[in-house]
User: Fold these one by one.
Assistant:
Number 1:
Amino acid sequence: MTNRGNNPASTAFRVGTALAAVGLSVWLLWSLRSLILPVAVGSLLAYVCLPLVAALERLHLARSLAVALLVALMVLIGLLLLGRVRAALPAEVGGLEMRVRGFHNLNERYRVLMGLDGSLKGGNRLYRFAGQDLDPLIDQVDRSIALTPEERARLLTSRPESSDAAANRLIVYDLDNQRTLEARGLTVQKPPPIPGDGGGTRRAKGPLARLGAAFSRWIVAPVVFFFFLRDVSGIKRGLLRAVPNRLFEPTLAVFADLDRALGGYVRAMFLESCFLGVFVGVLLRVFGAPVAWAILVGLIAAAANPVPYIGSAVALIGGLSFVIVADEIHPLLPAIRPENAVIWLVAGVALIEVLKNSVFEPFVVGESVDVHPVVIFIVVLAGGLLFGAVGLLLALPTITILKTLVASASHQLKAYRLI
Amino acid sequence: MRRFSIQGLREVLLPRPQGPAAPDRTSAAARAAFGPLPLMTSGGKQRDLAAFLGEVTLFADFSRWELGRLARNAHERTYRDGEYIYQEGNPGAALFLVQTGIVEITRRDPKGESVRILALERPASFSEQAAIGIDVVRWTSAVARGPVSLVALGKSDLDELGRRFPLLANKVLSRLAQILVLRLEMLIDMQLQPGEAQNSNDEPGK
């Protein structure tokens, strides 16, 4: 037998080729980073759906048919949800009304909580303690949700003279809001156009263009989802085919470890998301939110949970938008009153986050990821800095996979006496 | 197709050497441990992996759907002459089925020299215990003699099969257990044969 492996030129060529391949992979990864998220989401969703396809296959359905059925079902559910969400979203005038109501209720509740008089002077002990810090925050929120003169005109013209109590109340709110803006010394104007922009080009790259760009990128996700589901064994076999014979069995074991780790992560994340969703839903019900709103916010918080801290942020925003915008709230606990509901809500969401981080993550997620929390924190930060939202979302699964890959590969290579 | 029967299989697998024509103890034991299992199907030209799996005794009487599922989890490997399929002392993670070519099973003697135990050809299966998944350290080596093509089924593939298709995985595992029990019975039988026992008794006097 020839001893090809010991030739220095051959070794140099192999090392050079490997380095070039690694360099090319890194360059490709960086260049195509905008596709990472859709591909990762499509693959992870497919991974989660594998047991469903297997369940359909156990009914002796062909795999392609099982996958097609599942995709059709998901598209149907997606369309139904989209229809519900679109129906729930306020139209333009409805949005203006919500802003008027939100502005009024926020300032009214802040005034009562801080013990301010009609001219926003005076204030109780709490105001003297935290007013200097909170006032700028309230000013900022006020500026962002107050109507511009053009928007006010549009709102008023869209509401003809009416004896409807709700419409009249809205007009009262609007007048109150103008007085509040005056008392706070705030002016609301249309944001000035960016010099040299002309407004036109910016509008041309507006929501529709951005939606188009996102769609062209996200079209990858369902394609990856479909083909991954349909041929996951083929992909695995194809990868293993490229492996030299002496590495075949170690690679099988490494793949099994990766599968176990990824499965553990997905299961843990699913459980944690369910935990967050249920607790957020219950919390909002305690504040008197309608069942549909509590379920919707709970579901969105659960879906956003894989991105660290975003699930709780969604819960906070969803809860605040209810507590601030709703004219009347009927909490289940007597201690919660409209003027202090915001504080209770922040405390409630913080408690859920603490429970999640201190009880749930160490016992469920920690066991599957098995990485020190400090390392997780640094990796999540680094992922966010390097890849933005993609990095935040994929930091945990990436570190899980990399850690398992390194540990398992080194263990197997030692066991097979290859290193 | 003949029905898979453990009794029938036992009769075929258990050689009962008699008289001077009896094979020597080592080769009989080697045949028991690694020898090809009898062809249970009616044969015919296999066109794909599933058809080939249907030829192997291990998967005799499996339905077409089951063979198709198994084929999706199996890996086809090719080896050149002299290449190791696995080596003695290494962990085992897969069972192998000979598709084409000849595989030689060898073992190192106390002096460290490689001793040929047996040659296997289509449709033999070997290294079944590795697929069952006990921490197996291989006590023999398998080497390709000439170009060889094998089908491998890993322990991890069976684990995955168990999660998605538990009934099928259970069927494969119980068949593997049957085969291993048979091989063990054959080895024990070798020990208890009168001729062999006589030989064993004679040995100290030599």
Number 2:
Amino acid sequence: MQRSLISAILVISFAFIGSVFAIPKVSLERDKLRQKEGVGLVMPSQIAQIVALEFKGLFADAIFSKAMTYYGGKLIRGEKATEEEWDWIYRNMDTATDLDPYFLDPYYFGATNLAWGTNKVKEANLLLEKAFRYRDWDWTIPFYLGFNYFYFLQDNEKAAFYLMEASKKQGSGTLLPTLAARLAYQGKKTENAIIFLQEILKKTDDETVKKVYEKRLNALKGILFLEKVVAAYQDKFKAQPNKLDELIAKGIISEIPQDPYGGKFYLDKDGSIKTTSELR
Amino acid sequence: MTAVWSVALITFKEGIKNRVIFGIFIIALLLFAATTVVITFFMRDIVKVAVDLSLSTVSFAGLLTLLFIGVNLFGKDLDKRTIYMVISRPISRSEYLVGKFIGIVLLALAVVVFLGLLSSVPVILSKRFYYYPEARFDWWIYSIAVVYIFIKLAVVSAVITLFASFTSNSFIALILSLVTYIIGQSTEGVKLLLASKVEKIDVNPVLSHMAGIAYYIFPNISAFDLKTQAAHGLSIGPSYIIWTALYAVFYIVIALSIGALAFRRREFP
């Protein structure tokens, strides 16, 4: 009796110590495996809708948060998402919003990250246009669409259309009709973008997203400042400067503003202000 | 009628006394608690996620109750041969069957009322926790969704009664009910999928015909799922409510009548 008790205790304690050693190893190996796995397949919406049974909303939540945590993990590790990964993120957001077409988070996440984080404005707009069809009470959706058309696609006509749509909905405030009217005029692109971004910033309380916008806003403010200075230079000397440094040499400004993206502002051949970072 | 009622009450009491129901309640409470943590991972539509989780929990707990307790309440009488005591009394077999059905429905009602009220706690917390002006939510629509969970469970109870009336043991009744529930949830989706002709795959006409037949034979349980409407405060028209409720009543009557017919002809070993 006693002997069997002692041997049982021995076996249990041996196995316990073993498992304590094994647990961190297992999680390490799992991490390695996950990194190798990378992005997986996305279930097609039509299949997901059937498999989810009555839990379509929960499925949408799970698919969305899986893609979001994957992207978040990359950000924390300081890695950049590849083209393939962005595509995977887009398809996840698409499936999540097929399961619950009123779910704001995937639209919001997709629209902000696909347009700003990478060059997938077309995909961001596809998501937002779907949101526009379903969330017909929400003015922020056409507002973001209008911004994308104006800023990334340089399509002022469509931008003005969506802004007018946004201004018709409750809660949109008074600034939108004015902004839409301004877009009807060509030019003043930088100024309009600043007004747009300031308006978006007011509606954003997520700190990470806020930083993205603030960075862009500061860069645009720098560009607007230089544009005005170049215009003043043209008024004064009746000629365009060849380089931005000439502005300092002629004593119009004391220094060229910093590009928050780490690039350098320069004067393009067509007279517009550009930056070597391409705002990325 | 009193005979039906007394069978129903006995069935209900037996179900409530079952220990499994405590397990199911504990699972539901844990899921409600988890809801309050999970919602913090989301960005803006936080109330929606809370509603999704809460209502799914109520529905899931109700289904577990029916499949694990409801099915057994039938099986017990047959397995333990206590059925002889009942059928020797002045009560017809159909009355016995209907009484059992009502007892199980009462059990589902108790679960839905209790957990439905409790499910509002994570939703209230989520509303306190985060306010987004463009999110819509309406307690009225939320309560309609809870009522529809009960209607769905009543239909599932009728299906369980039907299968229990002719199968020889409760495990087979459980499997058949579960399969019917899954098919009932997906017939509408499959029908839509076949109608949409995705990516130009040629669908076998026999298959699409079968899906059409299944749509009429199996209960369209997805019609009683109003979680998305509750989560986004989308209005539900009165005609939707009237027609789906009528559909549920008709389906329950059909299932119970066929069940009663089968049960009357049944011979007990």
